[in-house]
Each structure stands twice: as C-alpha cells, then as structure tokens.
Design goal:
The protein is α+β, with helices and mostly antiparallel strands and 114 residues long. 32% of the residues lie in helices and 25% in strands. This is DUF7882 domain-containing protein.
C-alpha cells in the first residue's frame, strides 16, 4: 500500500497501482496550475463512505509507494480518470475494471464524464 500525503498532516492510503495512476493524472493537472476536487470511496473495512479533498498547486503533496518497482501503467485507466478530473464532479478514483468498462461503453459514470 502507498500513501498520498496532502498538506502538512493528512495522509490517505491507496494500493500502489491505483496511486501510480492517480499520480499521473494529478501531476498533469497541477503542472498546468489547475485546482480540482479529488474523491474516492472509503473501503467498508475503514468505515465506508466517501472522501473528497480540494487539490491546489499551493498545497504540499507527496506520493509514497511501498513497492520498490513502479507498476505498469494502463493508458485507458489514466484517460478515464483524466476525463473525470475535467468534469463538474472532479477527479473520482475509479477501479481499473470500471475504467475499462467505461472505455468499452458497457458503463457510463453518471455525472462524471461530461
């Protein structure tokens, strides 16, 4: 498991593969000095629910991975989350399977991809 550390004390846990894809999308937006909302579902083991944070270029951000090797990246997963990041809903962390289903047209993310 890896961690997204945001601000001075907030730390959020993600598996390394998800975090690697999230990093590509977040860094691409921040490189353009853009702010946006980032949201994800909380696992039932951690109490369920959703978490949302406002990502802005002026707030310190760190991606910390537990694995020593970077995971292979899935372009479809990055593309779907990138499109979400530009929607009114903001960047929503979706699973790799959900991203593939969106690409194939099997599923749409309501209120997500404009």
């Amino acid at each position: 498991m890896g961690y997204l550390q945001y601000g001075s004390a907030s730390e959020y846990e993600f598996d390394d593969r998800t975090l690697a894809h999230l990093k590509v999308v977040v860094v691409s937006r921040l490189r353009r000095q853009e702010s946006f909302l980032l949201s994800w579902a909380t696992e039932p083991s951690a109490g369920s629910g959703r978490t949302s944070i406002w990502i802005a270029p002026t707030i310190p951000l760190q991606f910390r991975f537990s694995g020593s090797r970077p995971p292979a990246l899935n372009k479809t997963w990055i593309d779907v989350m990138s499109r979400l990041s530009h929607s009114s809903r903001g960047l929503v962390v979706v699973s790799e399977e959900e991203a593939e289903a969106v690409k194939s047209g099997e599923v749409t993310i309501s209120g997500g991809i404009d």
